[in-house]
TrEMBL record:
Belongs to the Gfo/Idh/MocA family. It comes from Paenibacillus aurantius. This is Gfo/Idh/MocA family oxidoreductase. It holds the Pfam family GFO_IDH_MocA. One of its GO terms (molecular function) is nucleotide binding. InterPro entries: Gfo/Idh/MocA-like_OxRdtase_N, Gfo/Idh/MocA_domain, GFO_IDH_MocA-like_dom, NAD(P)-bd_dom_sf. Keywords: Oxidoreductase. It comes from the Bacteria.
Length: 330
């Protein structure tokens, strides 16, 4: 692809997710190049940029936003900084891919969306798994009636990193906790598959004094229409899993690696079972390419900022339920 037809990305921060996944994804994409990286530590920015073959580094986020050659920014900063830097990026005329969760509250997400709309820039939340074609295929199987009517969905996303005491995930004011970090995945997946919003949320959580009282494990129930529910658990102090199961009247779909990892999934019907197979695709690259087409006006963003606001409303309810030990009506 010619240089005139590439999105020049700037990276605000040197977080692990950026270095490990999103930057390589942009570099593997058909439409984008990583043109600059910024950190509040100039030496760290320089070192990280060199490691990842990024030509320019800056010692502040402001300097990167002032770079007129940058078209879009990816924001992998701690959750409490998403709103500020998304709005500042929009005001600088940059399109924004913001790491999930979009913000700390739905109200913050609304303010971010308003700022981006006012500036005429694209805003997307970085739920990379949704851009993989397997979820389109999964929905096709359901719509074709292969598993009958959906009766329930169960999702998990857990890992154990509890010994890393200084991790930003374990700081309440920064938006720490498992619901923000990984619970948002099964929540967004259920909304995606069912094509509707939940009506109520009930969550029970392990609030850890050792980790600034953030939820280190949470188990939840989201109530959808027709008696369908998502049951889910998420955690940062439990063995690793990231699974999804959709149960119907006549069959079920099992996704053993629902958000990260191999893409294949199994379908169980009255006729037997089969595996749906997919090629190795970089879902971070697919995410970057989809956003580029939206920036160029070639296609609408499949998951616009309004979707992120709706997901945050559910997270707001889940956090309130976990902290107050009550069922929250949405």
């Amino acid at each position: 692809m010619s240089a005139e037809r590439q999105i020049r990305w700037g990276i605000l921060g040197a977080a692990g997710i950026a270095k490990r996944a999103v930057i390589p994804g942009i570099q593997e994409s058909e439409t984008g190049v990583t043109a600059a990286l910024a950190s509040r530590d100039a030496e760290k920015a320089k070192r990280t940029a060199e490691e990842l073959n990024i030509p320019v580094s800056y010692g502040s986020y402001e300097e990167l936003l002032a770079d007129s050659s940058i078209d879009a920014v990816y924001i992998p900063l701690p959750n409490h900084l998403h709103k500020e830097w998304t709005i500042r990026a929009a005001e600088a005329g940059k399109h924004v891919l913001c790491e999930k969760p979009m913000a700390l509250t739905a109200k913050e997400a609304e303010e971010m969306a308003e700022a981006c709309a006012k500036a005429g820039v694209v805003l997307a939340e970085a739920f990379m798994y949704r851009y993989h074609p397997r979820y389109t295929r999964l929905k096709e199987i359901i719509q074709a009636g292969e598993i009958g009517e959906i009766r329930g969905i169960h999702g998990t996303f857990t890992f154990n990193n509890a010994k890393d005491a200084n991790n930003v995930r374990y700081k309440r004011y920064m938006g720490g906790g498992s619901l923000y970090d990984v619970g948002c995945y099964p929540i967004s997946a259920a909304r995606l598959i069912l094509g509707e919003e939940p009506q109520a949320a009930t969550v029970h959580a392990l609030l850890s004094p050792e980790h600034d009282e953030v939820d280190m494990m949470a188990s939840g129930l989201l109530e959808f229409s027709k008696g369908v529910a998502l049951t889910f658990d998420c955690g940062m102090w439990a063995a690793f899993r990231n699974t999804l199961e959709v149960v119907g009247t006549d069959g079920r779909i099992e996704v053993p690696s629902a958000f990260i990892g191999p893409a294949n999934f199994k379908v169980f019907t009255r006729d037997g079972e089969r595996e749906e197979e997919f090629p190795q695709l970089n879902q971070y690259a697919l995410q970057a390419d989809t956003m580029a087409r939206a920036i160029w006006g070639e296609a609408d963003l499949p998951y616009p900022a309004e979707d992120a606001i709706r997901n945050m409303k559910v997270l707001d309810a889940c956090l309130k339920s976990a902290n107050e030990r009550v069922r929250i009506t949405l």
